[in-house]
Write a structure and sequence with these properties.
Layout: H1 3-27, H2 34-63, H3 66-71, H4 76-84, E1 97-105, E2 108-115, E3 129-134, E4 138-146, H5 151-155, E5 159-167, H6 171-180, E6 184-188, E7 191-194, E8 205-209, E9 216-221, H7 230-251, E10 302-303, E11 306-314, E12 318-326, E13 332-340, H8 348-361, E14 372-378, E15 381-387, E16 391-393, H9 394-404, H10 410-428, E17 450-453, E18 458-460, H11 489-492, H12 499-515, H13 523-526, H14 540-543, H15 550-558, H16 570-583, H17 590-604
Antiparallel strand pairs: 1-2, 1-5, 3-4, 4-5, 6-7, 6-9, 8-9, 10-11, 11-12, 12-13, 13-15, 14-15, 16-17, 17-18
Length: about 625
């Protein structure tokens, strides 16, 4: 047979047979089984838990903020004006989040702020607890009560609420249902929402409950299996085989063989041009190569998307550098790069402590806790990317004030102490992604781990030795970590600690703030004095008679030797301080703290120019971050 007819007939048979086989395969539809659909319900259940935990953490940590409490009893126009003047900026929503602040009185409710503007308000204003709504999307809400700061508002019956709403992402469930070819919808009360393809009105539905939300079910339409048509499949396959044979005969050689006199094809075993050969490392687009170190970062060095500006300071575990993060359309943001010391990176336990800091702090979203933006490894170095605080740590400010004989204004001291308590309360009450409490205890609260910005923000840092119930790294029993001079007795001897250990250390910082005197409560150094009279410190009013007398009992009781004698947590300690501040008219705003911090920084860093904007050349280096 001539070569051309063979080729034509073979190609026709191959095409026709292949089309028949493909058609028959496409007619088959696998049936669904209940276990596969239960996995889809489990995906949705996990999403509900995660978004609810995020909303609960956000609501609980935000609702206790003093500006929100002070807002209850006012009106929406006043708050809009305060927000325009940067006096009220707590309600900045994250992506996919809606925040609503409102108040109720005598059965009536009023919405004060809704962010983002134009967002969907909650259908449950003032109703505390967890809620779920199905509409154009699925949303979970956490509604938290806010007690007014003003006694007169409380007496008038005003109660505030903060509703935090987060949209559920159903993309993973929709993808799985599409793979199974199963129409489905979520049903809750009177609401329904299609998940992927909507079931037909006549479809027979099976209910799969979502355990984390009572009354929420995934209704699925079961699909029966459709077998493949055997005849077309077999005939198509046979025709394709005959066509392939005819093509080979027509070509006159084996597929892939070289024609006589033609050299064998050159290449890399089928790899596309430019594809790395086996064992070859992919190109590193930015940052140091593996094996290099970034510990000695020089200004101007670009690591990933961060450009180093200058070194800010150093601690026992890491160096800290100021850097700018670059984004699209000229976006720039200052960040702090915390780079672990190279010699510690070879110590597995030290690495775990460093990673624990980022893992734990990243789960605490609060205005008084420095935020973690990223965690990773660049070359051989571990790096935490965190919020940059333009100011100084409290220890530097107190040391400068003490040396110059300038006591911290009482209102400012109490204001800083209360904000430390608020940040620790958020840590103590933080939740894991599944909604379970983390029970975080900082364990190293001291003035050096409190940052005060030029704008008056007070931020807790350094959760490197914090402990949590679900922590990957667990301290060895009897191991003591922290700062002995500020450490609770039970922590000093390696005993199990809880939130009351942070209460103790916070009170020690508070003693330094209000008196100006340095504190050293190292149990080992003071063992010869015994427990009687602990904490072996003179009453604050004996060092500063202008202080409210109640502070003597509050601070010394919070530093009691036996943990049972202390306030149960930092929220209780903050409430005691708040009552003193209100009774003696010692309320303090961020602006008050900013004025004090800027004055101390000016004395600490004489002749310093104002901080340069992100686009300007870096200014002088200071030991702060």
């Amino acid at each position: 047979m001539a070569r051309t007819p063979l080729l034509a007939l073979g190609a026709a048979l191959l095409a026709a047979g292949g089309a028949a086989a493909v058609w028959s395969v496409g007619q088959a539809k696998p049936g669904t089984n209940l276990e596969s659909l239960k996995k889809v319900a489990a995906i949705i259940d996990g999403e509900v838990k995660q978004r609810r935990a995020e909303a609960a953490t956000r609501a609980e940590s935000t609702a206790i903020q003093r500006p929100l409490r002070a807002a209850i009893g006012t009106d929406a126009a006043t708050l809009e004006d305060q927000e325009a003047n940067n006096d009220f900026g707590l309600l900045a929503p994250a992506a996919g989040e809606t925040l609503e602040l409102g108040q109720t009185q005598g059965g009536r409710y009023a919405r004060l702020l809704l962010r983002p503007r134009g967002g969907a308000p909650t259908k449950f204003p003032g109703q505390e607890g967890s809620k779920l709504e199905l509409g154009a999307s699925a949303m979970v809400s956490e509604i938290h009560r806010i007690d007014p700061l003003d006694d007169r508002m409380r007496e008038a019956g005003y109660v505030g609420y903060l509703a935090v709403t987060r949209e559920l992402s159903l993309a993973a469930a929709e993808a799985e249902l599409a793979r199974l070819r199963v129409p489905a919808r979520l049903v809750h009360g009177d609401g329904a929402l299609a998940v992927g393809a909507a079931p037909a009105a006549s479809a027979q539905l099976t209910d799969l409950p979502i355990p984390s939300e009572e009354g929420l079910v995934l209704q699925v339409a079961a699909v029966a299996a459709v077998p493949r048509p055997v005849g077309p499949l077999a005939g198509g396959a046979a025709a394709a085989v005959v066509g392939l044979v005819l093509l080979v005969l027509g070509l006159g050689r084996r597929p892939g063989a070289a024609r006589p006199g033609e050299p064998a094809a050159r290449g890399t075993g089928g790899l596309a041009a430019g594809t790395p050969a086996p064992g070859q490392s992919p190109t590193i687009l930015s940052g140091p190569a593996p094996g290099d170190s970034v510990a000695g970062l020089a200004p101007g060095l670009v690591i990933g998307r961060w450009e180093v500006i200058r070194r800010l300071g150093a601690g026992g575990m890491a160096d800290v550098h100021l850097a700018r993060s670059r984004g699209e359309a000229g976006f720039e943001k200052l960040v702090a790069l915390k780079v672990m010391h190279p010699f510690l990176a070879r110590n597995a336990r030290a690495v775990e402590h460093f990673l624990d800091e980022a893992r734990l702090a990243a789960q605490i979203v609060h205005a008084n806790v420095a935020q973690i933006h990223d965690l990773g490894k660049i070359g051989e170095d571990y790096v935490i990317v965190m919020e940059y605080i333009d100011g100084a740590n409290l220890d530097c400010l107190l040391t400068a004030a003490r040396a110059a004989g300038r006591p911290v204004p009482i209102a400012v001291a109490l204001g800083i102490l209360r904000r430390i308590c608020d940040g620790l309360t958020a840590a103590h009450r933080a939740l894991a992604s599944d909604g379970t409490p983390l029970h975080i205890v900082h364990r190293d609260v001291k003035s050096g781990n409190v940052l005060v910005s030029r704008q008056g923000a007070v931020k807790l840092v350094d959760f490197g030795i914090a402990k949590a119930a679900q922590q990957a790294h667990v301290t060895v029993a009897g191991e003591t970590k922290g700062t002995p001079s500020m450490m609770a007795p039970e922590q000093r001897v390696g005993d199990v600690v809880d939130a009351r250990a942070d209460v103790y250390s916070t009170a020690a910082v508070g003693y330094e703030l209000v008196t100006g005197a340095a504190v050293n409560l190292d149990l080992a150094a003071l063992a010869h004095l015994g427990v009687a009279g602990w904490p072996h410190l003179p009453p604050p009013t004996s060092l500063r008679p202008q202080l409210p007398a109640e502070l003597d009992d509050i601070l010394l009781r919070a530093m009691a030797f036996e943990r049972e004698a202390r306030p149960p947590d930092c929220a209780a300690l903050e409430l005691l301080i708040e009552q003193v501040a209100k009774r003696h008219h010692l309320e303090c705003s961020d602006k008050d703290i900013a004025r004090w911090a800027q004055a101390e920084l000016a004395a600490l860093l004489p002749g310093e120019a104002p901080p340069a904007p992100a686009s300007a050349a870096p200014g002088p280096s200071h030991d702060r971050w």
